[in-house]
Design goal:
Order of helices and strands: EEEHEEEHEEHEHEHEEHEHEHHEHE
Number of strands: 16
Oligomer: single chain
Radius of gyration: 20 Å
Distance between the termini: 26 Å
């Protein structure tokens, strides 16, 4: 039996993939099964992937309505049988991703590529997630939050853990390297902040076509060059990180790589997007192109980035992040679509 459930009902935003409809609903509070626990959600972020899911361009659970939200944190409200690593009332954040632990990918340490797990079993995409006052999650996907980490900022632990995976793939990223960040949505802003944290200063360029997003970069006070795509002509970079998910943006950035240059496809592109490359230039320059898929074994690094970046880099006002009530989900999504903000976070 689950222990110490203190509330009787929960509120959540329900998404029906068949109709594309979102609605605010209530339901009895679930009891966590063995090996799982119930998190009272404090803050839950809206990811660009969530917008793609709602518009029908990214796969999710289709068989029944789903609660979205794969970036969330909160406190433990109930423990299922067999849960031993956590205590009631503990502040935690949740890794939404896991593998089946049975296939060749999982056995090779690549659970993020697992066809049964990985993206295909993500909390908030294929099982109910954090756009809710409560969420049931497996114990193995829960991480304790350090006391120094602000609970609202902890909603960024999942995207920062994905950033940590991309960083690992592109390492070494050294001071003095010329770096291009394409796209100044929230992911581009977090990449810019991480580069600055690691000592890269005058050699980073952020490329963004939208004036509102350019202003967000400047508001962060990083003193980076911020330019439009047309202003990239004649420039050369050792590393380019695409945070836009835009095929044309990627296609324009790859030729800008210097000899031995590396390109990270970090932003999630539309599944139908195509990019053309020049194989001779790939050969001649010995270019490296890598995709970065979620956050295999990097969630602790994401929490480490939370601690290191804290108020210096993660002030919501500077990042263009706005907090909404769960009942204001329509306003939050509309503000994102208009580009008024870089990210919406629900205070649940």
């Amino acid at each position: 039996m689950a222990r110490s459930v203190r509330a009787s009902s929960m509120e959540f935003v329900s998404f029906d993939a068949r109709s594309g409809a979102l609605s605010l609903r209530k339901a009895p509070l679930p009891r966590p099964p063995r090996g799982e626990l119930l998190v009272r959600v404090a803050y839950s972020g809206v990811c660009g992937t969530d917008l793609h899911i709602i518009e029908g361009s990214f796969p999710c659970k289709q068989s029944e309505p789903l609660t979205l939200g794969h970036e969330f944190c909160g406190t433990i409200e109930a423990l299922g049988d067999g849960v031993t690593a956590f205590r009631l009332g503990q502040r935690v954040t949740v890794d939404p991703n896991s593998g089946c632990n049975l296939c060749g990918d999982c056995h090779a340490g690549c659970y993020h590529l697992c066809l049964n797990g990985g993206v295909n079993s993500t909390i908030g995409i294929f099982r109910n997630g954090g756009w809710a006052t409560h969420c049931v999650v497996p114990e193995m996907q829960v991480y304790a939050l350090p006391d120094a980490v602000d609970m609202a900022q902890a909603a960024l632990s999942e995207p920062l853990s994905c950033l940590a995976h991309g960083w690992d793939l592109m390492s070494p990223i050294d001071v003095g390297q010329r770096v291009l960040v394409s796209g100044a949505g929230i992911i581009g802003l977090l990449w810019a902040a991480a580069l600055h944290l690691h000592g890269l200063r005058k050699t980073v360029t952020v490329c963004e076509p939208q004036d509102k997003r350019k202003d967000m970069v400047k508001r962060m006070g990083l003193d980076y060059e911020v330019c439009s795509p047309q202003q990239l002509q004649g420039k050369e970079f050792d590393l380019a990180v695409d945070c836009s998910g835009s095929g044309p943006a990627m296609e324009a950035a790859i030729p800008l790589l210097a000899r031995g240059g590396r390109f990270c496809m970090f932003g999630v592109a539309n599944p139908a997007a195509q990019v053309s490359i020049n194989p001779y230039q790939m050969y001649k320059k010995e270019l490296t192109i890598k995709g970065a898929n979620i956050n295999p074994f990097t969630f602790p690094k994401g929490i480490g980035l939370l601690e290191a970046m804290h108020d210096t880099y993660l002030r919501f006002d500077n990042l263009g992040i706005k907090v909404f009530k769960l009942s204001e989900y329509k306003e939050a999504l509309d503000a994102l679509k208009r580009g008024d903000i870089s990210k919406a976070v629900f205070k649940c």
